[in-house]
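Tokens for chain A. Residues wanted.
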């Protein structure tokens, strides 16, 4: 990675402001139901504390308050959880900019300070220059460790980096290191598994990865637009009619580039999503039936290809894994990746990451991206403003 990281700057005695992604799920009583994002930031936070900074100021958003103060979106429960994980006190402030905040940070005997939800200000998402400066005024060094928001040019991800020295945290560095393996010079054979509902969400991803990949395995709802383009009957399965030409074009391009495209050869179908008792495995989908998962023959073909791969990127489940009755294809793929020896397995955030977590296989993957939208854009070959803004290594 050609960007400076926390290891490249002297933090001793400095005020350091870190953009973290603590946008965690909570239940109706505001109890945190999954603290993975907080835990993911700990290596950076603990490293900075070891360098004896004057202050470590953390900032994050939570939810979409859209420029209003929303009581249920305050970061207090997150600060409490962080205290437990760090084993030290965290000063929780009730605002994120202004003289009151500045004074509270100066007077506090605590080293770790948590600012209130950035998105209580509409200036955050608008990347307002004055708001950027107010955030920058709180510290001398800025660290971005929030990969999940790096594709957004917001005040706390991009604007602030123009005002003070800006470097990457360890989580951001790890994301770039792994994702660039998939887009830069991947070890071959290189296989990409693509799923999810829509072709339209993945067009740029397919086009970019086709330049590097040897094989694309296509499942999920998006497969049926391709199968329809190939003249197959897909019954009532999900179809983007306006993307049939795009699908044909991708099939043609794959031929020209000598990239193998594999589609489902059998399907788990039902009469309706809420009628799992009607499910059966078929090769040809009749009218009135809807495909919700890949069949066992498809799983076998996919696994045969994956067995020989050295680099694998997985973006999107191959079936409706959220319902147990339709999860077996996605589970089989996850278990296959978990069992591979000597392959780099990169899970591209979002639903694929949720699936791997659901099957409790996180620790068996090389890398699980913490940012769904950000990892998608990175794999599409786009520049992420939150990364571009950081200082380059000399």
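Reply:
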């Amino acid at each position: 990675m050609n960007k400076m990281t926390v290891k490249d700057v002297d933090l001793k005695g400095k005020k350091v402001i870190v953009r973290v992604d603590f946008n965690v799920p909570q239940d109706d009583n505001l109890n945190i139901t999954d603290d993975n994002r907080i835990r993911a930031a700990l290596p950076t936070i603990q490293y900075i504390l070891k360098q004896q900074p004057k202050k470590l100021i953390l900032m994050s958003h939570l939810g979409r308050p859209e420029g209003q103060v929303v009581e249920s979106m305050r970061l207090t429960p997150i600060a409490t959880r962080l205290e437990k994980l760090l084993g030290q006190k965290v000063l929780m402030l009730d605002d994120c900019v202004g003289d009151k905040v500045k004074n509270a940070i100066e007077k506090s005997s605590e080293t770790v300070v948590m600012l209130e939800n950035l998105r209580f200000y509409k200036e955050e998402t608008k990347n307002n220059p004055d708001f950027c400066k107010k955030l920058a005024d709180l510290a001398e060094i800025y660290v971005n460790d929030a990969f999940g928001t790096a594709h957004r040019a917001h005040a706390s991800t991009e604007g602030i980096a123009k005002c003070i020295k800006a470097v990457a945290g360890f989580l951001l560095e790890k994301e770039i290191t792994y994702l660039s393996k998939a887009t830069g010079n991947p070890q071959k054979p290189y296989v990409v598994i693509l799923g999810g509902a829509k072709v339209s969400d993945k067009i740029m991803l397919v086009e970019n990865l086709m330049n590097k990949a040897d094989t694309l395995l296509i499942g999920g709802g998006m497969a049926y637009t391709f199968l329809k383009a190939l003249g197959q009957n897909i019954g009532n399965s999900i179809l983007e009619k306006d993307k049939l030409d795009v699908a044909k074009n991708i099939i043609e391009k794959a031929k020209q580039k000598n990239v193998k495209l594999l589609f489902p050869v059998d399907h788990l179908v039902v009469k309706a999503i809420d009628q799992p008792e009607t499910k059966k495995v078929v090769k040809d989908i009749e009218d009135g039936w809807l495909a919700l998962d890949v069949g066992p023959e498809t799983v076998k073909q996919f696994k045969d290809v994956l067995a020989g791969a050295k680099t694998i990127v997985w973006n999107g489940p191959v079936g409706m894994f959220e319902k147990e009755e339709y999860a077996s294809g996605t589970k089989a793929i996850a278990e296959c990746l978990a069992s591979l020896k000597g392959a780099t397995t990169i899970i591209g955030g979002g639903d694929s990451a949720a699936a791997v977590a659901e099957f409790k296989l996180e620790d068996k993957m090389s890398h699980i991206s913490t940012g769904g939208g950000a990892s998608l854009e990175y794999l599409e070959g786009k520049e992420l403003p939150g990364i571009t803004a950081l200082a380059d290594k000399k």
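The chain has 15 helices and 15 strands. The mean pLDDT is 95.
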